[in-house]
Amino acid sequence: MARVAIVGAGIVGAVLAHRLAREGRHEITLIDAAMSAGQGVSGRSFGWLTQIAGRRAPSPEAAAVRAEGRAGYDVLNDALDGKLFVSGEGAIAWQESESETAAMIAERRALGIEVEALDAADIARLAPHLDEVPPLAAHAPRDIFLRPGLAAARLAQDAGEHGASLLYGHSVLGIETANGRVTGLRTAETVLPAEVVVLATGTGIARLLPGGVTAPEIGSSPSALITLYAEGPAPTLALSGPGLEIRKDRRADHFLVAATWRPESERELDALAAEKMAVAQRWFPDLRNWRIASAGIAARPMPRTASGCLAEPAGGIEGLYLACGHPGVALAPVIAERIAGLLD
């Protein structure tokens, strides 16, 4: 039985800890500098598992692993007695023009993605409170949404209930090695012995790699998560159209909005939030008492791989593995399964 230390209790690390703890073949430790799981990028993520959003279709490799990840969440949700998400009516998305939306639908279908074409009457039936109904939209009935930070916390808790040690509030300073293999983790307080270390720290992976280990190419994609408050009836689906991606939050009268954040634009975050709220008010004129509840930025890791998935050994050090992905929430079950396979 190997001692396995997973660094990073975001959604990727938490899914992996859950997977390995339930398997029971190793002694698992999940460690994070935060005081609980899901407090980093995962806690500021939109949490929409989809393949229909965005102008460009995913690559065939990315589409395949995202479909695998979506199936993996059904398994996780069953294991946690339905506590990760509740299946609903999915999501709808559309582009600026009907022809662009039709092309988007055709591209997704060519990749084997389950998507339905909805006319205006269908859209009005599924989203009766949407004021600006497009003539055509893509409907993904199996799309789901969850709160990644909360999901990470629940998965980590489940890992603890199945024997994993959860160490929060401990910053990892480095990886201890001897004779070309991992021997433990170095924290400010102590050295934690381990035969296997998995770095699930997103854009922070390179900082923790021992000298001589080539860092993988991992970019950063800043994204804003904006929480809006408004009172009144609204669709329960996720909606993605020109200028806005929005979905209901689990809290009453709260909505989550995802937006690309470009620091070079020098636009303040509150200005971006106000812009998105204005679009939401136009879409849902019957909602009242609008206000911005919160807004934050997350630096999402983007591995430069064809599929967006990074789950592999770190070259040169035995027992050291790297785990991250883009979109990390969607790919977490895939990454966990691949890392678990490498440990067999």
UniProtKB/TrEMBL annotation:
It comes from the Bacteria. The keyword Oxidoreductase applies. GO terms for cellular component: cytoplasm. Coiled coil: none annotated. Pfam families: DAO. GO terms for molecular function: oxidoreductase activity. Keywords: Oxidoreductase. Residues 3-340 form the FAD dependent oxidoreductase domain. This is D-amino-acid oxidase.
